[in-house]
Amino acid sequence: MASNITTTISQQAAPASSSLSVSAQIGITILTLAFVLGFPGNLFVAWSVLCQVKKRSVTCLLVLNLALADAFVLLSAPLFLRYLAGGRGWEFGSAACKLVHYLSSVNMYVSIYLICLMSMDRWLAVTKPFLSQRMRTKRSLLVLLLVVWVMAFILSLPMPFYRSNVKIPLPNITLYLCKPYHWNSVGHKVFQYLFETIMGCVVPFSLINTCYASVICRLQNARFHRRGQGSRLILMIICAFAVFWLPYHIVNIIEVIGLLQGSDSVMKAAQTARPNVTAFAYFSSAINPILYVFAGSSHIRQAGLSFMGKLFEATYSESRSTSTFTRSGRSSSPDESSALQTLSVKLGKPFKSKNKEKSSSSGVSKDIETLASVDQLE
């Protein structure tokens, strides 16, 4: 999480109070649901990919990394729950304060840039199938995954610098609150919120939109309207991430505008909304397994607990068929071809196609050979 789940505490936790505020109760509910649904759900996704899927597509392996990142960040939920419900401030020390927010920020960047890789893989498969085939190897995929993780850890480096376990003296007790800290500098606030929004929203979503615009144009030009499970799954993941994270980035922009204009009312509105949109964004780590359940519901009755493995195997088959179609340039009709061949035999004349060389047996063999190798990680 790129920012302050813990700001909720600093604004509404009362250590001596026997009852929790409404905002604290909402925060506890969101975090509890996220942990109860998301942590076992993401582990189930990882188990399905590792143990149930025999032929793993690029999309499938990217989903595995996404599930592991989400499961890892959800481990911080019990700390935030204690912070919200305990009423004693942050009890886990300054190092833990910085670490959990740093890892939450890493999760945000890993998630969105893994989604970028999914979109780029789809774009390459449709627009540049031969290049896609050469690039889809174990080595290239591992390199790309390593780049995403390293980049996420680097992009998250500002987070621990702008997070501090601040001492709050009260009449009867001294509290420590893990909260944003910018040394009373407008420049530092503007930098952090703009940097998060540009690198965590503007850049990746621009890339995603460009890739899918190109894919849609290519498929429309080819008059190919088949929508496979892999494409639907990626679009669902993208939409879910946008729904849960865009409010957070909008609040970032509003606060930056307030800081630059010196408007106290705008800054106050952003600061009031920030705890709620941050908690909402945190729930994004729990939503993907729920989406997979809906996407793979048709397999549940037949496959039982293995239904998610069937869903991910379907992305393998769909990716192969899409790449084969784009290489051929148009979809062929086997029934039509067989009818023409049968008619030519009955007439006693060999059927001659205008594209004789392309429809020869050697061409068919080549298509079959490339079909078998697409999306196979060497």
TrEMBL record:
This protein's name: Leukotriene B4 receptor
UniProt record, GO biological process: epiboly involved in gastrulation with mouth forming second; inflammatory response; phospholipase C-activating G protein-coupled receptor signaling pathway; positive regulation of cytosolic calcium ion concentration
PROSITE patterns xrefs: G_PROTEIN_RECEP_F1_1, G_PROTEIN_RECEP_F1_2
Subcellular location: Cell membrane
Matching InterPro entries: Formyl_rcpt-rel, GPCR_Rhodpsn, GPCR_Rhodpsn_7TM, Leukotriene_B4_rcpt, Leukotriene_B4_typ-1_rcpt
Domain G-protein coupled receptors family 1 profile per the UniProt entry, residue ranges: 41-292
Family (UniProt): Belongs to the chemokine-like receptor (CMKLR) family. Belongs to the G-protein coupled receptor 1 family.
Transmembrane stretches, start-end: 26-50, 62-81, 101-120, 141-162, 190-212, 233-260, 280-300
Organism for this UniProt entry: Lates calcarifer
Pfam hit, one: 7tm_1
Region (Disordered): 348-378
Any GO molecular function: complement receptor activity
Annotated keywords: Cell membrane, G-protein coupled receptor, Glycoprotein, Membrane, Phosphoprotein, Receptor, Transducer, Transmembrane, Transmembrane helix
Membrane topology recorded in Swiss-Prot or TrEMBL: Multi-pass membrane protein
Source taxon at top rank: Eukaryota
Gene Ontology cellular-component annotations: cell surface; plasma membrane
